């Protein structure tokens, strides 16, 4: 019995298949199997997933399922859902799925009924959101809240802003949400410059409540507020917190009555369905938020209980492993044909890359193969006029997910049909391309004929749902969470820690005094940094 999954016969068999695969073309796979489009499709909740335009055969899929079995994927799924401490480097359970359990479910972890805790906080969030939405919650001067400013970064920002944008059509339009994340002062400046402090509510979101960017922005937001409202008592009406750290929230000066908690078993990048989503709940209302949670839960249940061969997130995660580790793809494009999902790729970058950007296995051994891909993307059709050229005719293997909806939120003339014809045309062009014979038959000038050949064979997965709603949105996010988990299991890495971001934070704290004080030594770092510090100081007049 081998020690690592990558030493197994199942792994080797996939390496063998990958070597043979350069000779396989999607044209031939479709040509030899007229039913491929129907056979290679699956449904999870309301999402229809067509994976027929992927570079796989029955033989590859069988080998991938065998690999999943060797990696004990089913057992690892059970371990996650039951609250085992699978985040071994932080000795924590990984239970974002518990955030979506229905009220009557039960899950006792480390002696605590987490479902009761989750619903207690959801209830408090709902009551608060309703008060803000109705105008019952007023600011210090008695005026209703018109703008909610979420201050947070990473998981405390990307999920909420992405969801707010995605579900804007379901939001109460007389309350606007804005999101401040960057410690670049221009972010706070631009998001507050035209606001009235009397009608502004800040939600300070930080799991740890120690994050430099968030606490600095929060401190400056308080100064901005008090410059106009001039009474410290105003803070209680204009600042609420979302955190796992009540002590630090109190230290900051926010009344813990106005704090919404969550737990250390919720990773930052998985925290949107927790109290971290408070701004989204205020925007779309508690009922829509619960519908979103039910959407997540439907996919959770599928992932938890469906055999791997029919398990859609597991299948898509295995396809990603196939491309990344066995076929050498470096990146993965996510291309939503939905303008409301314009922040989806940015959100996925943290979910996937902070989770699976690892080079050490759970037992501390280095990995000997490629892990996490670079995720990127823009909504169609904008991407078509920007970077699709490289996917179509460049030299790189870039698997791509196309996400679309049959019924638009707003039907204007023929626009949606045109939009979706692009969606369908692109995956066809990517898969089948255009041969030299076809180009010549079209009467193309011989001088440019080879330039107009499209090699095709570019893999895509199509995800189609009827509409973008809170439910389908929750399903989509849960789908990607579990795809990410599947990849981590095969690679035997911990998808739930993020030690790699620590060093930069420590170094920034060490460098800060050197930038602000001319008296601080500017010659004890490396030669590059020393020169840059001196130049910076001089340009700042220090
Ligand atoms: O970037 C590191 C990180 O720890 C993320 O994982 C997290 O989402 C983000 O910082 C913000 O952390 P917090 O919510 O504790 O402020």
UniProtKB/TrEMBL annotation:
PROSITE patterns: P_GLUCOSE_ISOMERASE_1, P_GLUCOSE_ISOMERASE_2, P_GLUCOSE_ISOMERASE_3. One of its GO terms (cellular component) is cytosol. Its main location: cytoplasm. It is found in: Cytoplasm. The active site is at 354 (proton donor), 385, 505. It catalyses: alpha-D-glucose 6-phosphate = beta-D-fructose 6-phosphate. Keywords: Cytoplasm, Gluconeogenesis, Glycolysis, Isomerase. Its EC number is 5.3.1.9. GO terms for biological process: gluconeogenesis; glucose 6-phosphate metabolic process; glycolytic process. It comes from the Bacteria. Pathway: Carbohydrate biosynthesis; gluconeogenesis; Carbohydrate degradation; glycolysis; D-glyceraldehyde 3-phosphate and glycerone phosphate from D-glucose: step 2/4. One of its GO terms (molecular function) is carbohydrate derivative binding. It holds the Pfam family PGI. Catalyzes the reversible isomerization of glucose-6-phosphate to fructose-6-phosphate. HAMAP family: G6P_isomerase. Belongs to the GPI family. This is Glucose-6-phosphate isomerase. It comes from Actinoplanes aureus. The gene is pgi.
């Amino acid at each position: 019995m081998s020690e690592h999954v990558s030493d197994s016969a199942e792994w080797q068999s996939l390496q063998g298949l990958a070597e043979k695969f350069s000779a396989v073309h999607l044209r031939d796979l479709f040509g030899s199997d007229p039913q491929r489009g129907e056979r290679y499709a699956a449904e999870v909740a309301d999402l229809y997933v067509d994976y027929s335009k992927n570079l796989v055969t029955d033989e590859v899929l069988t080998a991938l399922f065998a690999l999943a079995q060797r990696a004990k994927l089913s057992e690892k799924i059970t371990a996650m859902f039951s609250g085992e401490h699978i985040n071994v480097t932080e000795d924590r359970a990984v239970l974002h799925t518990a955030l979506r359990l229905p009220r009557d479910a039960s899950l006792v972890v480390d002696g605590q009924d987490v479902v009761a805790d989750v619903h207690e906080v959801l209830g408090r969030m709902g009551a608060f959101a309703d008060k803000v939405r109705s105008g019952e919650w007023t600011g210090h001067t008695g005026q209703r809240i018109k703008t909610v400013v979420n201050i947070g970064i990473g998981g405390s920002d990307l999920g909420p802003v992405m969801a707010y944008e995605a579900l804007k059509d379901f939001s109460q339009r007389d309350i606007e949400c804005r999101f401040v994340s960057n410690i670049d002062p221009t972010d706070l400046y631009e998001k507050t410059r035209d606001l009235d402090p009397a009608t502004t509510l800040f939600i300070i979101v930080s799991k740890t409540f120690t994050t430099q960017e968030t606490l600095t922005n929060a401190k400056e937001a308080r100064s901005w507020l008090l410059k106009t409202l001039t009474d410290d008592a105003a803070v209680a009406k204009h600042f609420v917190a979302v955190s796992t750290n009540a002590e630090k929230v109190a230290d900051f000066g926010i009344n813990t009555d106005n704090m919404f908690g969550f737990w250390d078993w919720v990773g930052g990048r998985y925290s949107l369905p927790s109290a971290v989503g408070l701004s989204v709940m205020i925007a779309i209302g508690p009922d829509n938020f619960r519908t979103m949670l039910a959407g997540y839960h439907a996919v959770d249940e599928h992932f938890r209980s469906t055999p791997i061969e029919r398990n859609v997130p597991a299948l898509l995660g295995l396809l990603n492993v196939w491309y990344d580790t066995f076929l050498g793809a470096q990146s993965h494009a996510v291309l939503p044909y939905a303008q409301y999902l314009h922040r989806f790729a940015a959100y996925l970058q943290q979910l996937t890359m902070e989770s699976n950007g690892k080079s050490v296995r759970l037992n501390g051994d280095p990995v000997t193969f490629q892990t996490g891909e670079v995720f990127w993307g823009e909504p169609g059709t904008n991407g078509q006029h920007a970077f699709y050229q490289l996917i179509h005719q460049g030299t790189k293997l870039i698997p791509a997910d196309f996400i679309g909806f049959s019924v638009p939120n707003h039907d204007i003339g023929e626009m949606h049909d045109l939009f979706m014809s692009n969606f369908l045309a692109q995956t066809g062009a990517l898969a089948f391309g255009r041969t030299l014979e076809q180009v010549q038959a079209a009467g193309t000038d011989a001088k440019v004929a080879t330039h107009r050949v499209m090699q095709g064979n570019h893999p895509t997965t199509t995800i189609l749902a009827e509409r973008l709603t809170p439910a389908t949105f929750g399903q989509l996010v849960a789908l990607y969470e579990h795809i990410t988990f599947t990849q981590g299991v095969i690679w035997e890495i911990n998808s739930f820690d993020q030690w790699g971001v620590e060093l930069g934070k420590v170094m920034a704290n060490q460098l800060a005094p050197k930038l602000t004080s001319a008296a601080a030594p500017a010659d004890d770092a490396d030669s590059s940094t020393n020169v840059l510090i001196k130049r910076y100081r001089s340009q700042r007049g220090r």
